[in-house]
Amino acid sequence: MKKKVNWGIIGLGKIANKFAEDLQLSNTAVLHAVASRNEERARNFGEKHKSVKFYTSYEELADDPEIDVIYVATPHTFHFENTMMCLKKGKGVLCEKPMGIDVQEVEIMVREARSRNLFLMEGLWTRFMPSINKLMEILENKAIGDILFVRADFGFKADAHPEGRLFNKKLGGGSLMDLGIYPVYLSLLALGIPLDIKCMARMTTTEVDATCSMLLNYENGAKAILESTLEAETPSEAYIHGSKGSLKLHSRFHQAEKITITQNGTKEVFNLEYEGNGFIHEIEEVNDCLLRGEIESSKLPLKTSIEVSHLIDRIKKEIGLDYKTKIASHKA
């Protein structure tokens, strides 16, 4: 059986740098190639992170027969076309979140991967953090009883440059797609799919949300109160309240290193540090899946990515956020 996984990276920005640093921590991963349309950037990134090769086109990288899986770290609105290109060239893909700009894109990507028997996973790195693994154990054991409500926020004050990635509609900007996906995903882990939702947002002059507030209602009466913002530094904590106690994921909750459980006035604290920049845990999940011949992760199945995207689409509709994707021209 193959012992090493050869990685390629396309889109060489800030997140890709942190990801490439964590690839060095893995005993089973090799950074085989990186690609940027800017030759100097590709060369410099490759040298910095000890990549075997560098390319000046994404297509050339995807054509490299030695690459097993490609990390797609381009801006949101390019995830679909970049991932589809890699899949059609026979490569497995780890696509940075959000996997697609809407659920239709995600469903097409999933069908493509499955039809070709190729690995595909969304880069929701939070799922593989030690703290979230512990959270799942706590929830499955009903340690805090039946979940009554979830409260989670994620916010920081961003540079409000209209052409910057976070506020540019053409790049999938806005707080919901960049930050809100984490509270939304946590609500799915804890409570599943909501019965109905109520959402409000403050929109920018570039027609994306600067702040998004979400209230989710569930069939059993449970509630989730979620918020994302690019306008202020918020606690970025998460609380899950149950019939037997409460749980806190400390800041920033999507990469928490501490969980506190409160029951009957007593507190139990779990210290759960992550390695490197935190990406190593999802990297090892992908490596393990590929080395076992699996085409999706049991911890983050493609069904979940479809559910996350569908829920975000419902929120987008509520707040009047529309990226106007032209999906028809990309159908497989």
Automatic annotation (TrEMBL):
All copies of the Gfo/Idh/MocA-like oxidoreductase N-terminal domain together span: 5-123
What InterPro entries does the record tag this protein with? Gfo/Idh/MocA-like_OxRdtase_N (IPR000683), Gfo/Idh/MocA_domain (IPR050984), GFO_IDH_MocA-like_dom (IPR055170), NAD(P)-bd_dom_sf (IPR036291)
| All copies of domain GFO/IDH/MocA-like oxidoreductase, residue ranges | 133-247
Give the matching Pfam families. Answer: GFO_IDH_MocA, GFO_IDH_MocA_C3
Q: Which UniProt keywords apply?
A: Oxidoreductase
The record's family statement is: Belongs to the Gfo/Idh/MocA family.
The protein's name = Gfo/Idh/MocA family protein
Q: Which organism is it from?
A: Salinimicrobium gaetbulicola
